[in-house]
Amino acid sequence: MDTDLLYRVTREDEAKLIALLTECFTNDPLYQELIPDEEKREKLLPELFRCDLDEMFEDCEIYANNENLEAIVVVSDETKPYNPFKYFADQLYSVIKTNACLIRDDPSLETFFNFLKGRDYLNSSWTEELDENRLHIIYLAVRPSCQGRGLAKYLMNTVLDYADQRNLLVSLETHNPKNVAMYRRFGFKLYDTIDHYPDLVQYCLVREAKNNQTNKAA
User: Please, what are the domains in the chain?
Assistant: First the structure.
């Protein structure tokens, strides 16, 4: 996805990006479940997001409302050709880095085993059966102090307009049930749920390509 309507986040913004993700997801149900101890969570999350950055910058586009990174959207354009060997190598490298971080920073291995049990919540494998003409939104995050200013709507509408212009399906997942109603207002529908981990549900949502929406309306 390429757009001039948003600020393109680069490696120079790494510290601000990690700080934003940590602030936005510290109280997310996913990380509250996988890292129940608040002190451990505050310590681990910045390192976990840092582990994800190589893959994000390599395989995704990261956009913000401005250079202050008050709100971001991370998008994977599934229409782009990719090398499967490189993709799986990147995935493996990311897993190894993450596991090493979990073991290093929590020698009790409690967090490591929590992540192992919750691994199906930490990827988007459910999208494998969807159309490849698709954008996948990995993160949509707004700094808590900046919420209520329409930033999420602005970022989301920019992505959806881009998808509609190219007749692309859009997919995403959330672990916060409060977000489901918000995404429905953008035209997303619940596609599936993953709920085999105690007290944690992943809501998998899709928004159909524009032509499909038009045909159904007709």
Answer: 7-217 (3.40.630.30)
